[in-house]
Amino acid sequence: MARAPPVTPLYNHRPITFPPNQLLSRIKTKTKTPSKISAVHVTAMPSQQHHHEAQAQAQAHPKLEIIGGAMESVLPALNSTLARFPYNPFPLIGWNCHVETVYAAYFRSLPDVKLRRECIRTQDNGSVALDWVSGDDRHLPPDSPLLILLPGLAGGSENTYVRHMLVRARSKGWRVVVFNNRGCGNSPVTTPQLFSASFTGDMREVVAHVATSYPKANLYAVGWSMGANILVRYLGEESHNCPLSGAVSLCNPFNLVNSGEDFRYGFYDKALASSLRKIFRKHALLFEDMGGEFNIQLAANAKYVRYFDDALTRVSFGFKSVDDYYSNSNSSDSVKHVGIPLLCIQAANDPVAPARGIPREDIKENPNCLLIVTPKGGHLGWVAGDEAPCGAPWTDPVVMDYLQHLERVAGLASHGNSVDAQQSTEGLHSVEV
């Protein structure tokens, strides 16, 4: 296996590892006019004091577990948000993970948003549906930051948690698009293949399409549950070449084997299998006369997700068995390769994405990653905060402030690069450190 490239630190600064008193002795100029140097910008390695400050800031939010290689660079920007929105589970609902999960799924409000659908054809002649906010193509500037939303398994733009995030981002002047997987959100299915937790091909084509449509915009993405797993796998595969400027992962199962062990044959398993059966039955004619290991009858009547994946998903994507599919679809293996800013938010009591699957050590060692674990929240619940119990999840203002912080940093970097480019033509031509 090829060795993974080294992880690029957040904001692409190159730290200097030698002591400051040796700096001048290591500068070699390639010109005889050093007097034209106006400034030398040095980014030093994080000091022990900065490390202690970051630890103190994390301890200022005792109800949350906050770790990650990006603590020192990102957590200060989120401190005010976490202080204004402390995590306090809503009484009665937030005491039990199952109650919270079910309540959020059935009783969370659905914001009314008019959407415009765009269907794009993929390279294998499949189709995915992109839902944009109607009118934004005319009302927003072409350089408005653009947010791609990836719903959970069998989810789409009709999900409440997706709509709330969409409305919040749109209120900040962001352009938003929901990426509906094949067959999800009533999107068309044009080939005998749906989606999987391991497949990132459609995500790659969606990002390329969106980037071509809005070349002046910075691109970001937020994924929930299986959408988060796909997103993090995509980030790891793209690594330093990722066209996104930042991303957020919510309720990510990370380890599908652990996740399957926790909810197998229970209420959630049956509910998700029911959603998969509905999608399949709408397009069953495409799968008629499929040979090989496909089991069409089992897929149409699968009582549990594992049965559906064994009959259809793992065959479509070339896995030898359903266990082979699950063990090779983990996004936990991708975290160490992520080369852009990534915020992960998990609930310690998530019944579908168990906390033991979180790749904490890889998140700590990656300077681009930050993890926040709430004590409660269930799966896609987080019934807490000012809008509880029927409004937006507690996570939404944290996610939005994080994304806006990244956009501000991207704007400053862009401005700084243009200034540096101008100064380099007027001053010293080359300084080697």
UniProtKB/TrEMBL annotation:
InterPro entries: AB_hydrolase_1, AB_hydrolase_4_sf, AB_hydrolase_fold. Residues 145-380 form the AB hydrolase-1 domain. It comes from the Eukaryota. GO terms for molecular function: monoacylglycerol lipase activity; short-chain carboxylesterase activity. Belongs to the AB hydrolase superfamily. AB hydrolase 4 family. This is AB hydrolase-1 domain-containing protein. It comes from Quercus rubra (Northern red oak).
